[in-house]
Specification:
Protein name (chain B): Cell division inhibitor MinD-like (ATPase involved in chromosome partitioning)
Helix content of chain B: 40-55%
Oligomer: heterodimer
Shape of chain A: extended
CATH topology of chain B: Rossmann fold
GO molecular function, one term (chain B): ATP binding
Pfam family, one (chain B): CbiA
Number of helices of chain A: 9
Number of domains of chain A: 2
GO cellular component, one term (chain B): cytoplasmic side of plasma membrane
Keywords (chain B): Cell cycle, Cell division
CATH class of chain B: Alpha Beta
Amino acid sequence: MSVSLDASADVRAGVALVTARVSNPGPVARRVRLVNRLDGPVLPPRRRGAPADGWSAEGFDGVVPAEETLAVGYACPVGEGASAGRPLKLADVSAPRGTTAPPVERARRDLPPSAPPRDAVPLPDGPQTGRADPDEAGREADDAAADRGAAGSPAPGDATDPTAERDDRASRGDREGGDDPAGSPAAPAGDGADGGDGAAAGRSSDATAVDAYLDTVERRVARGEQLTDASVAEATAALAGSDLDGTPVAELPDALAADAAALEALAERAERLAERARATDVPVDALRRLA
Amino acid sequence: MILAVTGGKGGVGKSTLSYELGAALDAVVVDADLAMADLPGGRERGPDLHDVLAGRASAVEAVRTGPVDVLPCGRSLAGARAADVARLDEAVADLARRRDLVLDCPAGLRADAGVPLALADACVVVTSPKPWALADAVRSRELARELDAGVACIALNRAVDAPAVAPVERALGAPATVVPADPRLGRSITDETPVAATAPDSAAGRAVDAVATAVRRAR
């Protein structure tokens, strides 16, 4: 009766989603070590930004109780078209060690998380406190921005940062808007379009945020057009006036490429939303009768 | 040593007793209640525990000296959300080598309450002497036991009539000390006048001293 591994992977959009079951039919608990065989980094399940217990860059290390099955899963970016047959191997089976995690680790892992819910925290990049108009942003938002900025800065490579989720969202917004600071209005636009967060702000502020984003992009595109096939004189004139706008010329091509991608995604989404909006038919009268 | 002052319920006087024990034990009181700080000192006077946890300041430089030395905590929700209590260990390690610490824990049984307890060598469980409050004290005691923080003392705080101590000691398995209700205790944090220093011979002062003695014994 030996420990057996049953692993499979499902490749979606270049990312292998690996699921594995380790069965221990024996009468004693066994420690197992699973090693990733795929050609990519192990993206383990995370809790509050920290990898779940037992995961490392190599794979998983954990204990399977007697006569039980342990189910684990992770993601691994393998690239488009790669196959993911036999994604894992059972590298080692041994007796479980007697050591337990130190108390701080146990407290962190076993107790429910305590951070205030995201909804309770005013986001500095929300539709109403836009960076486009910092003077109007309240002191609280400034504080939040300071906290977030400073706490977020050591985040890359730091797995335990609880702001990671929020930063994800912010960076998603930034990606949509381009790599430059002027692209940040994309964040409110993106959040508003997501539905939840922007709902309370109302339709008009959503529209304002979208307008602000589009205006920023329009200025950038206009500059790009000015500099496209420009004569020396025209280019000089355009560059002389360029300090008014945020994007350095060197970054303009990248920013414009990002803008183009973001706008295409936006257009596609807007079209889908418009179709869905047209397809709705709310039976107001019937509902009124029911109410 | 690191002492955690804990108790499942909010509003039972954990912060007040932390402050008093800071005075009685000549320790630095760390406001480890990341989301609801209530010890004096805030953002306006320099770095706080949020900054320390975020790596923007060291614990040593964030200490505010006063009648009781305090490492205060920030009060913004954003700061509380960004702060990772799991870093408390390394954040206060340097300070703990120089001074004894009293960690004022938050209420509840979540990670923010558990991590300070796990760091501590011993703990004081603060509870109201009312029977309905004892269930929370039992839960805190359980958590402390799971996380290897020995219970030095149960503080039956704000007692008006002499509560029955023996049943509490039996239920919680630790010695209990009655801390009487005293308006001076209520003011000690806001006025920065710890009873342990300003009125050591009052009933409240003697009670704080008894808790401190129990803590020293547990060391």
